[in-house]
Amino acid sequence: xxxxxxxxxxxxxxxxxxxxxxxxxxxxxxxxxxxxxxxxxxxxxxxxxxxxxxxxxxxxxxxxxxxxxxxxxxxxxxxxxxxxxxxxxxxxxxxxxxxxxxxxxxxxxxxxxxxxxxxxxxxxxxxxxxxxxxxxxxxxxxxxxxxxxxxxxxxxxxxxxxxxxxxxxxxxxxxxxxxxxxxxxxxxxxxxxxxxxxxxxxxxxxxxxxxxxxxxxxxxxxxxxxxxxxxxxxxxxxxxxxxxxxxxxxxxxxxxxxxxxxxxxxxxxxxxxxxxxxxxxxxxxxxxxxxxxxxxxxxxxxxx
Length: 304
Prior knowledge:
Layout: H1 23-34, H2 42-45, H3 50-58, H4 65-74, H5 79-83, H6 88-98, H7 103-110, H8 114-121, H9 129-139, H10 143-148, E1 165-171, H11 173-176, E2 188-195, H12 196-202, E3 209-213, E4 228-232, E5 243-248, E6 251-259, E7 265-268, E8 280-282, E9 291-299, E10 302-303
Helix pairs in contact: 6-8, 7-8, 7-9
């Protein structure tokens, strides 16, 4: 059941019959038959509030691969049933999700621009013959599987290796806020796959990365409620202008830290439109009272 309290816990998407047009419609129909509510999907989607679940049903947020698989399991349907893999675009999307690929990674592997991949998956247009061949080669599947669902044709050899992932722990926020940044495995509620190549490219240590989720709107428009936030706990030395997970009086927050000319630090929210989120000033000699958990480096599939 959802916890409506403050801050931060847990990681792609996809169309059923003539009457129901979207996966959201099909999910709602299935939920009704099973007696499920959106509030009951919090744990399934790895978010804290019903409002965060609602963002996926309105299209404001996109389901991750793990979330799509978990939702289909909760609704007791296959991915194909939930996301209607009866068109080229939905077959591409379903296969991409099963391979834990982002649209950006499929674009890189196939050479098809990411916006075109997204348009094809969303049904905005049909793929050209050249695009189908390129995507089929990237997946290592027959073109016939993408066009007709036929799997007996000779597959193309995959153009690129299947990406490898590190499983990064999702922490229980309230517990993680209590005693430093040490990761107690008993506090881990889930795991999120993060690309090994991306971690190596950023020169992060996988053992110092954790995932929490955002509650509230103080950091909008960059961070939304329900966003999964990757935090590098090895980066605890503040650099002005960056976003950090911090603890003040044992309350865990996500804020932007800005250094003033006099050496004091501003604990700032990005949401300046809401007067409730006022900047806080902490003097340089009191800065040790502020505990930095780590720097926020990635949101779901984007960077801070």
